[in-house]
Here is the input.
Amino acid sequence: MNEPSVRIVFLPSGLRGSVTPGTRLDQAARQIGADVQSLCGGQGKCGKCRVRIASPTANRGSLSPPSAAETEALSAADLAGGWRLACQTEVFGDVTVEVPEESRTRRQVIRKAPGNRAITPNPAIRRLQLQVQPPDRHFPMADWERLKTESAFMDQAISPVPDISVLRSLPAILRQNEGRVTMAVHVDGHCVGILKDPDIPLAGVALDIGTTSLAAHLCDLATGQVLATASAINPQVVFGEDVISRIAHASTGPEATDQLHRSIIDAVNDLLEALWDQSGISPEATVDMVCVGNPCMHHLFLGLDPSGLGLAPFVPVVSQSVSVYARDLGLHLAAGASIHWLPLVSGFVGADTIGALLATTDEWNGKTVLMVDVGTNGEIVLAHENRLRCASCATGPALEGATLRHGMRAAAGAIERVWIDPETLTVRYRVIGDIPECPVPPVGICGSGIIDAVAAMLKAGVIGPNGRLKRDLNTPRMLVSGNHLAFVLVPAEESATGRPIVIDQEDIRAVQMAKGAIHAAGRLLMEAADVKTVDKVLLCGAFGSVIDPVAATLIGLVPETAPERIVATGNAAGDGARLALLDRTRRVEAARLALRLEYLELTLHPRFQREFAMAMFFPHKETMPSEKETR
Amino acid sequence: MNEPSVRIVFLPSGLRGSVTPGTRLDQAARQIGADVQSLCGGQGKCGKCRVRIASPTANRGSLSPPSAAETEALSAADLAGGWRLACQTEVFGDVTVEVPEESRTRRQVIRKAPGNRAITPNPAIRRLQLQVQPPDRHFPMADWERLKTESAFMDQAISPVPDISVLRSLPAILRQNEGRVTMAVHVDGHCVGILKDPDIPLAGVALDIGTTSLAAHLCDLATGQVLATASAINPQVVFGEDVISRIAHASTGPEATDQLHRSIIDAVNDLLEALWDQSGISPEATVDMVCVGNPCMHHLFLGLDPSGLGLAPFVPVVSQSVSVYARDLGLHLAAGASIHWLPLVSGFVGADTIGALLATTDEWNGKTVLMVDVGTNGEIVLAHENRLRCASCATGPALEGATLRHGMRAAAGAIERVWIDPETLTVRYRVIGDIPECPVPPVGICGSGIIDAVAAMLKAGVIGPNGRLKRDLNTPRMLVSGNHLAFVLVPAEESATGRPIVIDQEDIRAVQMAKGAIHAAGRLLMEAADVKTVDKVLLCGAFGSVIDPVAATLIGLVPETAPERIVATGNAAGDGARLALLDRTRRVEAARLALRLEYLELTLHPRFQREFAMAMFFPHKETMPSEKETR
Here is the structure.
């Protein structure tokens, strides 16, 4: 396949593929399986296939110039901003294409849904409803001083200090409402906002910033209720799939760091808009925010130089928790609101791990527990005898469904479970969003789907313990595609794209690399703690919440062979952010956890490479299936 | 004089006057006495008469279009920004014209010079010189945590919290200097900045924002030394001479408030540039700032709605001291620096009064003292038996030299002292900047000059106790100019403008109004305290520092008749700002003072109008010169 091709990534699905130069974007979307709707059949009339090209200026040469239909349908400002009609635009170079919600037929499935953990709110921001007295000519006290006096009558423990934004809006709000106002005040005394609506609940945002995806929950600070949830693809994927490529890009200079910083801030502002649209809460009432994410996401979100994370000895700029005004980041919360980042542990173990530990304290405290958080990077924590050891390893985004031949995010159309009959090699699968009333044909394979598929292929003998596809199987499902052997999960006639959905040797290799690193890290932590077996394995992360424990043990994702000990905890990192948002004492707990965690640097460990090589076998070189019962 | 005329104000001199429409700006400057140089004699060739028109867009119709010589000499950007050549520009409507330093032949005299009060520095911002250890691969501590550890070794009392700007610059600074850095940390723990130069002194700014003029002192925070001083005309004068007109303009809407806010912030940024140019200190090393000013200046500086200051019961938005990040105001100090405003007392008694009290504590504490701060507004404080009573009154800018027929700021060319021979009515005068080696002809009259002139006229019988110019005096110095009688201080042939410099009946009236208000306020405060006489009168403000006590008693500026009890204290408000900048305990003292001050609202006082009317006489209706000794 040496004919020229251009590479396209569709967001938010993350579906990607190569097409012949000159292919129209709507055709490319169909070939790759991305969801772009069209009502007029590609005539440029309905305007329903509006998409946005990332970095429009830089990518101008990659696309055909706007057609007459496009200049008709789109304003000059839209065109300048990268908006195009997919059915009118031919592609001649690599591009990333955002498909907005209104141009899609299917809705995204949010895997980073909030967990069910009960929280008794004890928020950092308190809400006081006040009736401020009008100024008296014999005692002409200033607006703020009258408000402050009233707040002291309501709660003597509070001595508020006004944010400058509060002072700027105060006279008009007092006038409009005859003195009836709601004050949002931090327990440290900082008055974050004054609201004119006395009945409005105060809300906060728990934000989980993954290398590949973002998830935000808007919560009522008084009740703890989740009012809205929104998620999106991290727009930084354009700069590379993993943290290493982001750090490499940022290290080219302050402009590049700022570019990555701006892109994540813009995306979070879009998420906030979505949360406010869903809930009816206003930006002014959104007075607090807690963030979790790995160290690279932390640095880029805060606009810090991440280059130290990419060079030995891999140090962050700051590891303690950071509070920063939303306005200093350009985030559109209440004018006086702050953003609180949970602390980092090391250059590779971040606030996401702290969040996951916070959310699962009851499950690991006093026990021997291995916690595995799998995203584009893997973090592994071993709790044992009051000590917390942790390690980190690069896994690549394969286990999140990205970069596979037919990989995709956990969205409608993604294969999430796979069963293969060992006799006939018949494949059954389950597709996200596919219900009897509304069938959804498969488009690609997501993270849990690839684990399940590899486990099923192993069990059915399609691959061996070394991960090689068996060339000599007598089945039309095994074929040579490109330079690689590939196994057909879905034949062309069943798929949404009209082309077969396959898993090829490179996909399996990517899974082996990822699981090998996690398995080896877990082993070395257990060895360091002199532990032979664990009470429980907690699987965290978007992927962890849906993986089948049996499939996990079959492929040897972790050094634990009993599926009943493997527990999915959902998006524990995001839950930790929500806990810290709603209960400020958890922020102190997070700081303590960060100090307690003992970091094991695997790159310095003399036996990591060897352990990694052995753990690339399914389930492990030392523990072949036949030995399983004897262990 | 009913022919059409346009009004021109020249900045920074504040000289103003009316000219016939179509007059060239250089001619207008000459007529009014403003200092605009010209080398080529008005041919548009030398480009030395560059001036800037305020609000160029709004004022486009007031001026002739740019000539060929101007489009030659000035760039399109300069023209758009309001730059013109005075010799090429004809004026057809009211305008304000800024004459930059390089287009003037004379230098400005700074009346708001720092006082000599000795200060033992105890600044809010401390300076730590640190040698941060490089990261270790076996103990990979974050950049900030290594810095923090080092700071704790140097001073255990400090537990710094980083400003986001510090985290952003930290990795590069540590790299550039092999870990040798200077940390600027507030006593509250906020780390304001990290500097790479280990020998740099940390500096702060004391800023006195007057209705008409601004004065800033850059001080070394460790030694207290004044490193540089700069002053400027408050650019808000374009919107009106006094606080009432500024409040009226701001009350037209948030855009107007923002316009006034931006204009003062821009002017302060210009002052800061001047301070840095003079001293060689960098913006990054300028880590603290304390401001004083009246409530209107305070509100406009902070971007607060001042409309409450213009309506009964005249309440400010906030009266306690306010700290706000420089970056939130757009001020170019160190990225993490804060601005501290001393507190206000009421809607009319501001941080300038608090500053003046701070600076003169030793002079009033335990004594019966009247402190008078005269600017465009007058503030009067009576200290007596451990109580501090204060009042405020509108005086207009006459006592600052503005709005008089031939008034001007205290700049080179201003008449500052006047003597009149009672027999011959010969006038002698002293001109600012006039020295034998370099004679300066008089241009106009400044604040101390008008007091002195009125006192001399009273003594010589040119005016009576009721302030009327004596029409029947047999002297060519008494003439009718326009609709008013006027007394010629300087004949045409002696003046810089080629026209006589006169004091007319309206000028005297303005002085009567101003001094009447101050005198009445002082009387009512003394009456409230049941005090018949005071130990001392402290005259503060730019004007107070040069007034002749004998002249002050002659005209009855204050209810005290013994000149030896009248003491000029210099710019006490500015000195107070400098004290609070250099010694943080003074900020606490300022807060205590603000609470102690008892405000007497004169507009509510049943007898203020009557007292005011009587005090308009020279020196007072009840205390005619003949009664002086009997009191």
